[in-house]
Amino acid sequence: MLVSAGRTKSTFFPSGDPNFVYVYLKMPIGTDVKTTDSVTMLLEKKVYKVLEAEKPGTEGSIVESIIANVANSANNPRSNNRSIQSNLGRIQVSFVEYEKRHGKKTKPYMDKIRKEMVGIPGASIEVAQEDGGPPTDPPVNIEIIGDDFEEIAKVAGSLSNYLDTNQVYGIENLRMDVDLNSPEITINVDREKAMMEGLSTGQIGMEIRTAVFGKEVSKLKRG
User: Fold this and answer.
1) Residue 173: Cβ within 10 Å count
2) How far is Cα 91 from Cα 35, in angstroms, rounded to an integer?
3) What is the spatial distance between Cα 75 and Cα 88, in angstroms, rounded to a whole number?
4) For the whole model, what pTM was predicted?
5) Which of 26, 52, 136, 177 is in Cβ range 3.0-4.6 Å of 124 for a Cys bridge?
6) What is the DSSP letter of 52?
7) Is residue 10 in some structural domain?
8) pLDDT greater than 80 at residue 201
9) Is the pLDDT score of 171 beyond 80?
């Protein structure tokens, strides 16, 4: 009984001082890329304010770089979607190697950044560090099970609104794994007509995708 009572808690994959801190921004679906860019710039200024004493390039600074992405390469790794989305933004803070930090801790800076990422209506913001172990589920999951999808969606929406309204302490990024607000346009291809023209549905789909999202032809790097 004494051994059981005195046993210390153990963490299999402890999260130490982060080498990278990420700020993930998600605006409502369909947000114009210019709006997402303006919000990302606002968050970037807040990050620079927190790291004012550790500006990249200054002597003794533990911050190596601060990089912001909008739409392209701005996805959260936890979501399996790697497509270019105009409503996403990401800020990456890279710290120097551990031995060059002169005993300075990086976790307090992550906590300070997290406290600053508030006050933007309609924006979902998550502050996280790099994953140091195997992929895991979020700390708390609430699962809703039923036969009628519309009823499940209604209950999930009500529960999400309830938790969001009550501002439960410790909840940083409240989100559902199903996006109920995703707009959709269905295009039915006349396969017979397409075959007569020598086209495949894949070609037509790629043309539509290029028209909507554009196409990356090549990358030019400077410096």
Assistant:
1) 14
2) 16
3) 7
4) 0.65
5) 26
6) G
7) no
8) yes
9) no
Note down the domain range covering 109.
20-129
- pLDDT band, very low/low/confident/very high, at 195 (cuts 50, 70, 90): very high
Contact of 93 with 71, CB cutoff 8 Å: no
Residue 196 forms part of a structural domain: no
Q: Which amino acid, residue 62? A: I
Model pLDDT, residue 196: 94
The total of structural domains in the chain comes to: 1
User: With contact defined as beta carbons under 8 Å apart, do 36 and 88 qualify?
Assistant: yes
Tens of pLDDT, residue by residue over 68-99, are 999 888 888 777 677 788 899 999 999 999 88
Distances (CA, A) of 39 to 34, 45, 71, 78: 9, 10, 12, 22
What pLDDT score does 3 carry? 66
Tell me the residue type at 46: K
Whether the pLDDT of residue 66 is over 90: the answer is yes
Q: In degrees to the nearest 10, what's the CA dihedral of 142, 143, 146, 148?
A: 80
